[in-house]
Amino acid sequence: MTDTQGALLGPAQIRELAERFGVTPTKSKGQNFLHDAGTVRKIVRTSGVQPGQRVVEVGPGLGSLTLGLLEAGCSVVAVELDDPLAQQLAHTAEARIPGSAARLDVVHANALDVTELPGEAPTAFVANLPYNVSVPILLTFLERFPSLETILVMVQLEVADRIAAGPGSKVYGVPSVKAAWYASATKAMKVGKNVFWPAPNVDSALVLLQRRPAPVTTASREDVFRVVDAAFAQRRKTLRQALSGIAGSSAAAQVAIEAAGVDSQARGETLTVHDFARVAEQIFGGALPLDSAQSSGGALPLDSAQS
Q1: In whole angstroms, how far apart are CA 117 and each of 7, 56, 142?
Q2: What is the DSSP string of 175-210?
Q3: Which segments of the chain are extended strands (E)?
Q4: By the number of CB atoms within 10 A of the CB, which of 61, 69, 132, 191 ranks highest?
Q5: pLDDT in 10s for each residue of the chain, 307 residues
Q6: Residue 146, phi then psi, degrees to nearest 5
Q7: Ordered domains of the chain (ranges, CATH)
């Protein structure tokens, strides 16, 4: 591969491009542009992407991470909402890494509205996500693009902790369970504030997710997520109380929860995604016999909103 060690963007180049394109980072769009080449290359290495691999990136901004992925030999489809940023990304790529624009597709759209992507289906998702919508974007792409096998995203540190949390953790909640429906998740590394322009007010971290099969269940993903949302709507409530609304009554909720082999006095933070699936089967019908559901044990996926 051609030596492109001078291809990535530093602080001076980031500011120069922003001024040229008339771009002022805004909090409402969650814009904090990476300007440290070493951090960009570390992200690319951590993602494990390979030359020729098709990668989707959301929120490429001025192109820091895009250039890192192109430098690594990847084929990139970048989804960008901001008009001037979307229009200029390919020009930046070609200027910094000649010939690379042929490996770059830019989709000018809101990531939450994207239902299909051009070209070959991507197998990796690598992005510095807009922090104000990071969890909805992550879960939406996991749901809509099953070809994605590896996901590495930069998010707020506290969001990374929540996505990667397991049952029993104080920060285990809706994002944890829904992410677990699709993938295993681990916090990969913390990222300092000084590698961004402007520097964010919060710490950041990378979360690495590896796709795995969805839980074996007769309940739909939508019904499982209804149970998850209800269980965490008021964290201090027991499951019997929290699920009374969707079950019809507290008594009905207790019957369903206990039929699923779960303690009705437990709280949502103690349940695995498999537990939630069994409860959804009992509440919404189509339940497998409990012994059968338990014996189907190891297969898994996960999905949707923020809490």
Answers
A1: 27, 9, 14
A2: HHHHHHTTEEEEEEEEE-GGGEESPPSS-EEEEEEE
A3: 33-34, 54-58, 75-80, 104-108, 124-128, 150-156, 183-191, 196-197, 204-211
A4: 69
A5: 333 467 999 999 999 999 999 888 766 666 789 999 999 999 999 999 999 999 999 999 999 999 999 999 999 999 999 999 999 999 999 999 999 999 999 999 999 999 999 999 999 999 999 988 999 999 999 999 999 999 999 999 999 999 999 999 999 999 999 999 999 999 999 999 999 988 888 899 999 999 999 999 999 999 999 999 999 998 899 999 999 999 999 999 999 999 999 999 999 999 999 999 999 999 998 444 433 333 333 333 333 344 4
A6: -65, -10
A7: 11-211 (3.40.50.150), 221-295 (1.10.8.100)
Token pair for 103 = 């490996």
- In the structure encoding, which two tokens stand for residue 240, read together? 């019997």
Rg of the chain in Å (alpha carbons): 21
Tokens of 117: 């992507």
Structure tokens, 221: 């993903």
Query: Alpha-carbon distance 128 to 45, whole Å?
Result: 15
Whether the Cβ atoms of residue 292 and residue 278 lie closer than 8 Å to each other:
no
The amino acid at residue 221 is R
Residues 69, 152: Cα–Cα separation, whole Å: 12
Cross-strand bridge partners of residue 58: 79
Half-sphere exposure of 192 (CA within 13 A, CB side): 6
| Alpha carbon distance, N-terminus to C-terminus of the chain | 44
pTM, rounded to two decimals: 0.88
